[in-house]
Design brief:
single chain, mainly alpha, MetI-like fold, 2 domains, 12 helices, 74% helix
Length: 292
Amino acid sequence: MSQKIRPYLLVFPAIMLTIILFICGLIQGIIQSLGASSIYNIGDATLSYYKEIFKSTEFWMSFFITIKIAVISTIISALAGTFIVYLLYIIKTGVFYKFASRLKLLIQIPMLFSYLVYSYIMLLIFNRSGWISSIFLKLGIINSIDEFPIIVNDEFGIGIILTYVLKTTPFIVLMLYPVILKVESNWLELTYMLGGNRNELFKKVILKMLINPLKISCFIIFSYTFAEFEIPFLLGVTYPKMISVYSYQIYMNSDLTQRPKAFAINVVAVLVITGMGYIFNRLSMQKWRNIK
């Protein structure tokens, strides 16, 4: 029994420290968003900063652009990750099955690099003065770099979405690939005996096994993308800016009286992510009850 709980005991101090720091930081953020400097001055709390941001057109523009980028990035990453897992499944169930695990490791290499590195790479490659525009200019495809389409620092967030997709798709593969490892050779043999093929086995059996880990992965990606700062800060535009950048700029403003407004924006972001998590959990639990 002690051997079973030993791994949990080893990670317990780190988990508890993370939870305590998160909860304390969240409580402090909520207090400051109400205009109180500390819990001892809670009597000075006011909802005026929340009213101010909810009446702000700039806040709602930032909120909806953030939702749009997070949703699009999550959907594209989910589709791309599922397709890659399908290719790995085809390789694993074919004559080159020995290369499936190596290919999976190769696909996961991008996870070793931070979001900041990805932002810098995007600027080097897709900026108007980057590598691709320079190659196109030398090949005569474009006559000047101004003819190259704006991919980074564009108002539609194409560069941001592309960076998120390149970074989070390997995460989807990492989360889904263990399902492929459960596929036994006799599954495929039984499918052939019933007149089916590998594609039908994937569509009717394995794809259903992928749904739950895929939903969890999508929620993690959406949550992180919604609150992530580095990529929108480097690859975004001045207006409309994503909500994390909007909050940061208000906080760094020389007007210290506006800082509670930045905390209020962050609290709203936390509530949105928490609400999404609650809805996801309720839907999952309801589906589980229906199955039972």
